[in-house]
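Narrative summary of target 7.
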Amino acid sequence: MSTQSKSLPAISAAIQLYMDEGGGDLPVSSMEYFDVALKTFRAEVSAAHDTFHPATACAGLLLCVLNFLQAYPGSQFLRLLADSYSLGSPTSSLSLSAEDDLATRHVLEFIGVMDMPCLVFGREKPSIGIWKTFRNSQDRWKKGRLKGIEVLSGMPMSLLDILADMMQMDTEEAVIRLWTWPGEVGEYLQCYLWDAWRLASILDVRRRERCKRQLDPKLSTEKMAKDIPCNEVVLCRLMAAIQVLQSASVQPENRNLLIRNGLVFPLVTASLEVPLLKRHPGWKKTADDTRQLFENNNRYKLVGITFQILDDAWQAGSSCFDIDEVARSKGIEIAVL
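Modeled conformation, tokenized:
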């Protein structure tokens, strides 16, 4: 791919230099490559005249990733790609042509996941439903809608379908779909991780509703769907899953697995349930122990800034801490995937 886009090797070099320097502030050498990559990427997109080049799209995604690692806004690069190739349009021919083009398919899946509202807090550019549009287009593919695991998130596509729909559903409907998701067959640790994401998503959509209405959690509990557990039960099960995954991630035989990477979204979501964590110190300890794993092994600015905001949430003591609004007020975006 590097032969098809000059911006791709430039941004790859910028990321490598950034990682070599430990992931703190962007070093000057990395800034230089980043500037070259950004200018070249914009020129390539402008010159493409609606022709999709996977290599250029990959460069745009990596620009987004480098920004996210520093907690800088990255959603503008996703929007540039989406607008340039009409990725949010139900009539996009690109989504249809991806059936036989693995490179294009992977890029569209990557963009679709990063466009999901619940996976990036404080977005400058709101989600435009790329994942849902791409999945709907697959219904017209010869072999139909894809099944299996999405590579970036490690989640079943059927679960991501629900996450992509959440902002268009009312809270009760979203919670019911998440709670009744049947799951899929996988390795034991995979199943724990999938459940952690499912349970975290229930808490996330309920918290967003509380933030929207600014109601006491007890009042919102009365409107919860019948037979769906309250937040305390959901959080208990989530913390149990996090504990299992956290313990497994430090075992020598699991060091090559990416379990820990998948814990970011569940951990951040659980950490925002401050009143419940204060009521259950054991759950808070599990969250703190898991957080320590990230702090010990990850020096990216994103990690430090994210945990600082979670500390602010803890001090605020509220069940409706609006992390999106806090991130936007700081001019940052927090990616949790």
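The chain has a mean pLDDT of 89.
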